[in-house]
Amino acid sequence: MMSAAQPINATLYEHLNYNFIRDIAPVASISREPNLMVVHPSVPAKTVPEFIAYAKANPGKLTMASSGNGTIVHVSGELFKMMTGVSMLHVPYRGAGPAVVDLMAGQVQVMFATMPSSIAYVRSGKLRALAVTSAARSTALPEVPTVAEFVPGYEASAVYGMGAPKATPPQIVDTLNHAVNAILGDAKVQARLADLGGTALPVSPAEYAKILAETTEKWAKVIQAAHIKVD
């Protein structure tokens, strides 16, 4: 199983003993899951433009939580900083749980949180969602706009999928791909993915390979520009 980690780790770690683009045969993508740009209710901004204006008026005063250095949550926030020119202090946590807890307590102000870790708190009013990070609005929260509606070209999401060893025979890859895509065509599966904030993403192995290559290239630029390091 593959997630957002593989495209990020390709650049994040300097000395990996493998290259997943070279060594793994993409089999099938499963879902695309956006993050949620969420803030503590005390933050006065109620829209992305208001947030950008507030951050620029208070440079360095806002803290941006993440589930750890180099996670999809972190790089999504760094991409936002790069594209808007805002300054926020990054506060990495050991996982999404502690980060969301501190966000709800007001210890930090903003987080580009994963949907599963934050959507329940948005629905209960404990956190305010300003935007989703995908190119299109989420069916889970259709009233919440995308970041791209205010920051053209912004997109950050996690694609989950399946890979196999590079030498796997093409007919086996195709058989697995067709089986996964058939499952993704099930209405109950689509509904469950939607509950978690994701969208089924049935594509061919070649299309999945293209997604992985493009995502790896995008996050490489963000990681290098933001000088993201891991211990």
- Measured between the Cα atoms of the first and last residue, the distance is 25 Å
Approximately how much helix is present in the residues? Answer: 40-55%
- Report the structural category: alpha/beta
CATH topology of the largest domain: D-Maltodextrin-Binding Protein, domain 2
In round numbers, the mean pLDDT is: 95
Low-confidence stretches: none
Strand content: 15-25%
- Main beta-sheet strand count, sense and barrel state: 7 strands, mixed
Number of domains: 2
- At the first level of CATH, what is the class of the largest domain? Alpha Beta
Q: Look at the structure and name the CATH superfamily of the largest domain.
A: Periplasmic binding protein-like II
Quick summary of this structure?
The chain is α/β, with parallel strands linked by helices. Helices cover 43% and strands 19% of the residues.
Tell me about this structure.
The chain has two domains: 5-32 and 156-223, D-Maltodextrin-Binding Protein, domain 2 (3-Layer(aba) Sandwich); 34-149, Periplasmic binding protein-like II (D-Maltodextrin-Binding Protein, domain 2, 3-Layer(aba) Sandwich), CATH 3.40.190. Helices cover 43% and strands 19% of the residues. The chain contains nine helices and seven strands; from the N terminus they run H-H-E-H-E-H-E-H-E-H-E-E-H-H-E-H. Helix 1 (5-12) crosses helix 9 and helix 4 crosses helix 9 (205-226). The two termini are 25 Å apart. The mean pLDDT is 95.
